[in-house]
């Protein structure tokens, strides 16, 4: 490892980048770029260097540069990563192969077509569903939720929709219609929310031929997730919830009520004269 | 670039069956996913062969005896051991999958605090225990075959 780091600091990096120009190419090919190594550089820094100094036709998505937006998902040395999230030193190699995310179409170079991801995400109704539709449309107050109830789904709500989990999933590799880890995890995120009443509607979507039962627990999605969301855990919990609902083993939970209007509280101790004056 | 060119469909990039086999830089559960499929397919193939060959018994004792004499060689003995090995791996991993796929033994969700860990990673001792048990069973069967 020390030798590898030494060679990195001494030398240059070779980026083997997948190229595809839809108006010209029938298939993809790899193009090599040699770039200087700088300490602490990320793969995205390398791609930016290529774009700025070597070939401005290279296409890739990028926005925040700090692992928040989830735009720069790529297959880096055969593992789906965010290019901004992984440093060259972490990879420990001076030849880095960068390809577009698998299991998505390629629009150009390193730009995957994430449309199926967003369509699947939308299909599971990723929002709070309530029976009181009037309150939903014109809310009068927020719904109450205890900190314990929040912890049931909080981990799964950190998803940035980068799409790495679908690229890692071996089931998504063969079944184009499989809902995939991202949308299934989000289905559980909303079903586990104490404010939600859309469990029955979501079950109809996820308990299908291309739904939750096609996950065979490879765990690759959780390993690839850059935000620690653990979609594999959410999907297994979703399976348990769906099964319990189908076998009628689940107790019917009352959804969180609307928060009562705030009550003006009287101070428990008289306010001293020198800190505040009563209006 | 004209409008027709812009509308060109994205290039297909699904890994297909290769996506099951190719496991890249993933951990043991990802490889067990592949192994579970391979052993499952192997057991199905053996089941078909087993039923077909047993069906020869209907055609008389002579054909049955002739067929069985074909299998009395070391290649088929190794094949038989591989079938038992596939069954042991498939059954033990299958038990783990049944439990974990119903959300048991995986624990509760945890707030993602860096460095992140996931439920399967935290429960890796279960996989290692299953692996150790499988190795002992495979060794016992091997001794039974050799001795």
Task: Describe, in plain words, how this protein is organized in 3D.
The complex is a heterodimer of chains A (279) and B (147). Chain A is built from eleven helices and seven strands. Chain B is an all-alpha fold. Chain B has a single domain, classed as Fumarate reductase/succinate dehydrogenase, transmembrane subunit (3 helical TM bundles of succinate and fumarate reductases), CATH 1.20.1300. The interface between A and B is large, with 52 and 47 residues.
What's the SSE blueprint?
The complex is a heterodimer of chains A (279) and B (147).
Chain A (H helix, E strand, L loop, with lengths): L1 H9 L1 E8 L9 E8 L6 H12 L18 E4 L2 E4 L5 H4 L3 E5 L5 E4 L2 E3 L1 H9 L9 H5 L9 H5 L12 H5 L11 H12 L7 H8 L13 H5 L6 H16 L33
Parallel strand pairs in A: 1-5
Antiparallel strand pairs in A: 1-2, 3-4, 3-5, 6-7
Helix pairs in contact in A: 4-8, 8-11
Chain B lengths: L2 H4 L11 H4 L6 H28 L5 H10 L3 H28 L17 H4 L1 H23 L1
Helix pairs in contact in B: 3-5, 5-7
List its traits:
heterodimer; A: 279 residues; alpha+beta; Ubiquitin-like (UB roll); Fumarate Reductase Iron-sulfur Protein, Chain B, domain 2; 2 domains; 5-stranded mixed sheet; two-stranded antiparallel ribbon; 7 strands; 32% helix; B: 147 residues; mainly alpha; 3 helical TM bundles of succinate and fumarate reductases; 7 helices; extended
CATH fold label of the largest domain in chain A: Fumarate Reductase Iron-sulfur Protein, Chain B, domain 2
Count of folded domains of chain B: 1
Structural class of chain A: alpha+beta
CATH class of chain B: Mainly Alpha
Strand content of chain A: 5-15%
Low-confidence stretches of chain A: none
Structural class, from secondary structure content of chain B? mainly alpha
Overall radius of gyration of chain B: 23 Å
Distance separating the two termini of chain B: 74 Å
Q: What level of helicity do the residues of chain B show?
A: 55-70%
Query: What is the H/E order of chain A?
Result: HEEHEEHEEEHHHHHHHH
Of all chain pairs, the largest interface belongs to:
A-B, 52 and 47 residues
Main CATH class of the largest domain in chain A: Mainly Alpha
**H-E string of chain B:** HHHHHHH
Number of helices of chain B: 7
Q: Stretches of chain B where pLDDT falls below 50 for ≥5 residues?
A: none
Mean pLDDT across all residues of chain A, rounded?
91
What do we call the CATH homologous superfamily of chain B? Fumarate reductase/succinate dehydrogenase, transmembrane subunit
């Amino acid at each position: 490892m020390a030798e590898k780091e030494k060679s990195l600091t001494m030398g240059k990096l070779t980026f083997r980048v997948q190229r595809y120009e839809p108006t010209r190419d029938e298939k993809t090919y790899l193009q090599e770029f040699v770039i200087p190594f700088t300490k602490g550089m990320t793969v995205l820094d390398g791609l930016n260097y290529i774009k700025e100094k070597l070939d401005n036709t290279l296409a890739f998505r990028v926005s925040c540069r700090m692992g928040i937006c989830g735009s720069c998902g790529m297959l880096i040395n055969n593992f789906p990563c965010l290019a901004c999230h992984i440093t060259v030193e972490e990879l420990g190699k001076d030849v880095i192969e960068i390809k577009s995310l698998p299991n998505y179409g390629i629009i150009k170079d390193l730009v995957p077509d994430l449309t199926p991801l967003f369509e699947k995400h939308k299909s599971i109704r990723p929002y709070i569903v309530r029976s009181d539709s009037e309150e939903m449309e014109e809310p009068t107050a927020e719904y109450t939720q205890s900190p314990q109830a929040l912890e049931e789904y909080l981990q799964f709500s950190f998803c940035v929709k980068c799409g790495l989990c679908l690229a890692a999933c071996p089931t998504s590799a063969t079944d184009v219609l499989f809902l995939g880890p991202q949308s299934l995890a989000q289905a559980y995120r909303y079903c586990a929310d104490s404010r939600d009443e859309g469990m029955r509607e979501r079950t109809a979507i996820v308990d299908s031929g291309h739904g939750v039962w096609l996950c065979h627990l490879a765990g690759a999605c959780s390993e690839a997730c850059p935000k620690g969301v653990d979609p594999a855990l959410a999907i297994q919990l979703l399976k348990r919830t769906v099964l319990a609902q189908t076998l009628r083993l689940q107790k019917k939970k009352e959804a969180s009520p609307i928060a009562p209007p705030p009550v003006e509280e009287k101070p428990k101790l008289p306010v001293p004269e020198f800190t505040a004056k009563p209006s | 670039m004209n409008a027709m060119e812009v509308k060109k469909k994205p290039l297909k990039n699904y890994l297909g069956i290769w996506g099951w086999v190719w496991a890249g830089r993933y951990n043991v559960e990802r490889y067990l996913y592949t192994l579970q499929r391979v052993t499952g397919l192997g057991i199905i193939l053996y089941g078909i062969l087993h039923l077909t060959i047993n069906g020869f018994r209907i055609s008389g004792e002579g054909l049955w005896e002739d067929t069985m004499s074909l299998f009395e060689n070391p290649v088929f003995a190794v094949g038989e051991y591989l079938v038992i090995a596939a069954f042991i791996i498939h059954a033990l991993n299958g038990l783990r999958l049944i439990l974990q796929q119903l959300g048991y033994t995986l624990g509760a969700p945890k707030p993602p605090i860096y460095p992140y860990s996931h439920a399967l990673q935290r429960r890796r001792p279960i996989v290692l225990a299953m692996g150790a048990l499988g190795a002992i069973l495979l060794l016992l069967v091997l001794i039974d075959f050799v001795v």
